[in-house]
Write a structure and sequence with these properties.
The complex is a heterodimer of chains A (508) and B (163).
Chain A: H1 2-14, H2 17-35, H3 41-48, H4 57-82, H5 91-102, H6 106-139, H7 144-161, H8 166-180, E1 183-184, E2 191-192, H9 199-202, H10 207-226, H11 240-249, H12 254-269, H13 275-289, H14 301-317, H15 319-324, H16 331-342, H17 349-354, H18 356-379, H19 381-388, H20 392-408, H21 414-432, H22 438-460, H23 475-489, H24 492-507
Antiparallel strand pairs in A: 1-2
Helix pairs in contact in A: 1-18, 2-4, 2-18, 3-4, 3-10, 3-16, 4-5, 4-6, 4-14, 4-16, 4-18, 5-6, 5-14, 6-11, 6-12, 6-14, 6-18, 7-8, 7-22, 7-23, 8-22, 10-20, 10-21, 12-13, 12-14, 13-14, 16-22, 20-21
Chain B: H1 2-23, E1 30-31, E2 35-36, H2 40-64, H3 80-120, H4 125-146, H5 157-160
Antiparallel strand pairs in B: 1-2
Classes of the chains: A mainly alpha (508), B mainly alpha (163).
Chain lengths: 508, 163
């Protein structure tokens, strides 16, 4: 019952005019950004984060969460109408969404996507409301060794789910960590890695500079090189009639949506898994359970409903470990986690006690943002279709300018803008060479915490790393370390195996 | 593509070795009673990066012995047209960034957007002028007036405080 009381308290905060406006603003921007090809929730949150520094943290997180949410809806729009996934989370939506649009059923697909997203989102918010407090309470018992083990687990899961090459995932993670050590040594206070006293390095490398560089500038470079050839487009008609008839058809998708939502929530909760894998898993499970699996890929409504409910559920799920443990469940929440630090909030169990307004205000706003998003997503479709027609030659320069401004505002230092541009170029090259970028951002965000907990633990143990494997003294830490070790080693096994095969292949 | 992969791996090895060398300015070992020194993490991390980058390089060299076409590393890193498109916007973008500190973010952005729309995108004069003036004006109102975050204005500073 305490939870219900807190929830009403949160809804009260979320319903204040300013927060309501932030949510609406965020949802509209999120849907728009999600619908733009190449830009997803990470890009939106990273690029727009600097403008939240002027409002209180609660309003700011409501804004960011609304963008995150809106982008999940928006991604489906371009997937269905243009066959260009608006974001990686909506790739699975193209499988059946676009065939439906080609059959002239774009409206059905769009409404299904919106409604499935709504149900997925709402179910997982309810789960979030009830799961978050106990998890936070559990984490209250964590000391530096446990915290370090949890952080390591986050890196391990990113390594396990990274791109084609596990080696490159490891490099990306270590690069991010290395960047986090630039600035001041936290224990001795002496400047570190400032390369002969470059002033801009004294305050460290702000994660936003990297995030905007990679997800803003780098992404634009990538799309510019790909070239924006206009694809064939289909007009999406959408009236009240279409909406009602689709809603009637939707009942047969109910089991799919229920499964997808639960799956999405739990996958989203896992560190680093996030909405993209959740949507793919949900799609394949829906296909396996379907009575008509042969229709999948040719325009099955379930094929649209499954990934869409899962990606929304996952986006809520991924906020759970971010708030309770300080471990982001997805690249977007990694950026949001960085924002928490900027606002001076410490994620983790104490957040629920000391910043109850923040936590419950966010929870309350999730319910509201979700409702707003479904309305915006359905009724603003014509506007978004118009926006999608905006050529890259207009969008690209505007986004570059916004990136420059966004890179400047957190630290008010032109050095960071130059650095951001360099990161953009490096990020672009890395992306082309299959270096995963999310682990780098995650490592930079978590780097400070990693080093602090590691060195605190080592001070506790008088310099012995045995503290992390002490099953008697720190059972949780030791168990988590074991899980991390397994996750680190797993992706390397097929690589070694492949290596052997390739060697025997050449000798034969 | 494979060549680019190797160049980046070699670059990473050199850069990280350089960083490792810089990291030795602080103690890199484990100090008695204090735990790891300030240079510990950056030093071992950069050595780690160098080692893994070396593995990537070796992997790439070994895979070259196999049929080139079936490896993931095959294909061109960048097509000529792609590079052209990128340079037509990327280089001016860089100039735009460098000009921010000289002629203010607003004029620099306006020039850059106008260039991209009118000269690269081939949009008409009305659209080009509209967007290139509209965007800086919106940015000005959001940042300077609403958020009260002053953006760099360079030598154009006086233009913003004439009244």
């Amino acid at each position: 019952m305490e939870i219900l009381g807190n929830l009403f308290y949160g809804l009260g905060i979320a319903l204040s005019p300013q927060n309501l406006l932030m949510a609406l603003f965020g949802v509209v921007l999120g849907v728009a950004i999600g619908a733009m090809p190449g830009l997803g929730s990470v890009n939106g949150v990273a690029i727009l984060l600097p403008i939240t520094f002027a409002v209180p943290p609660t309003s700011a997180i409501i804004f960011l969460a609304a963008i995150y949410y809106g982008a999940m809806y928006g991604g489906a729009i371009s997937s269905i109408t243009l066959n260009i996934p608006g974001a990686s989370t909506a790739v699975a939506t193209t499988f059946d969404g676009y065939p439906l649009a080609r059959k002239g059923k774009a409206a059905d697909a769009l409404v299904t996507a919106a409604v499935a997203s709504f149900i997925g989102g709402t179910l997982s918010i309810v789960l979030f409301t009830f799961f978050a407090p106990p998890l936070a309470e559990f984490a209250l018992r964590f000391g530096p060794p446990e915290e370090f083990a949890v952080v390591l687990l986050a890196y391990a899961t990113f390594a396990g789910l990274g791109g084609e090459s596990p080696l490159k995932t490891i490099i990306a993670t270590m690069l991010g960590l290395l960047m986090s050590t630039v600035g001041t040594d936290i224990v001795s206070g002496s400047p570190r890695l400032i390369f002969g006293g470059i002033t801009g390095f004294y305050h460290g490398i702000n994660f936003l500079v990297l995030a905007i560089g990679i997800y803003g500038v780098g992404e634009i470079f990538y799309t510019l090189e790909e070239g924006f050839k206009t694809k064939e487009r289909y007009q999406a008609k959408l009236g009240v009639q279409e909406i009602v008839s689709t809603l009637k058809n939707l009942t047969k998708c109910t089991p799919t949506i229920a499964r997808g939502s639960l799956l999405g929530f739990f996958v989203g909760m896992l560190p680093a898994a996030g909405a993209t894998p959740a949507s793919f898993m949900s799609y394949s499970i829906a296909k396996r359970f379907a009575k008509n699996p042969e229709e999948f890929g040719k325009g099955a409504l379930e094929g649209v409903a499954a990934p869409e409910c899962a990606n929304n559920a996952a986006s809520t799920g991924s906020m759970l470990p971010m708030l309770t443990l300080g471990i982001p469940g997805s690249p977007t929440t990694a950026v949001m986690l960085g924002a928490l630090f900027v606002w001076g909030l410490v994620p983790g169990p104490r957040l629920f006690v000391e910043n109850a307004e923040f936590v419950w205000g966010l929870t309350g706003s999730l319910y509201i943002a979700n409702t707003m998003a479904v309305i915006v997503a359905i009724f603003a479709v014509p506007i978004f279709i118009w926006m999608l027609r905006m050529p890259m030659t207009i969008l690209a320069p505007i986004i570059l300018v916004v990136c420059a401004v966004g890179g400047f505002s957190p630290t008010q230092d032109m050095f960071d803008v130059y650095l951001m541009f360099i990161f953009g170029a490096v990020g672009y090259i890395f992306r082309k060479l299959d270096y995963p970028l999310a682990p780098m951002v995650l490592a930079l965000v978590l780097g400070g915490l990693t080093e602090r907990t590691f060195r605190q633990s080592m001070i506790m143990s008088h310099g012995s790393p045995g503290i992390f494997f002490d099953f008697a003294g720190h059972p949780i830490a030791a168990a988590l370390m074991m899980v991390s070790a397994v996750l680190f080693i797993l992706p390397l096994i097929p690589m070694i195996f492949r290596f052997r095969v390739s060697r025997s292949g050449t000798s034969a | 593509m494979q060549r680019a992969d190797r160049i980046v791996a070699i670059g990473l090895i050199f850069v990280s070795l350089g960083v490792a060398w810089k990291a030795t300015e602080l103690p890199v070992g484990i100090l008695p009673k204090e735990g790891p020194g300030g240079g510990f993490l950056p030093f071992w991390l950069s050595l780690g990066i160098a080692a893994v980058a070396l593995m990537v390089l070796i992997q790439s060299l070994l895979s070259a012995r196999r049929d080139e076409s079936d490896t993931a590393g095959a294909g061109v890193f960048m097509s000529r047209e792609g590079l052209g498109d990128l340079m037509r916007v990327g280089l001016p973008g860089m100039i735009m960034i460098l000009l921010i500190g000289v002629i203010s973010v607003y004029f620099s952005a306006a020039l850059f957007i106008f260039y991209c729309l009118f000269l690269v995108g081939g949009h008409n004069l009305k659209t080009s002028l509209g967007v290139s003036i509209g965007v800086p004006v919106v940015v000005y109102y959001i940042f300077e007036k609403f958020l009260i975050i002053p953006l760099p204005k360079g030598y154009a500073e006086f233009l913003f405080y004439w009244n």
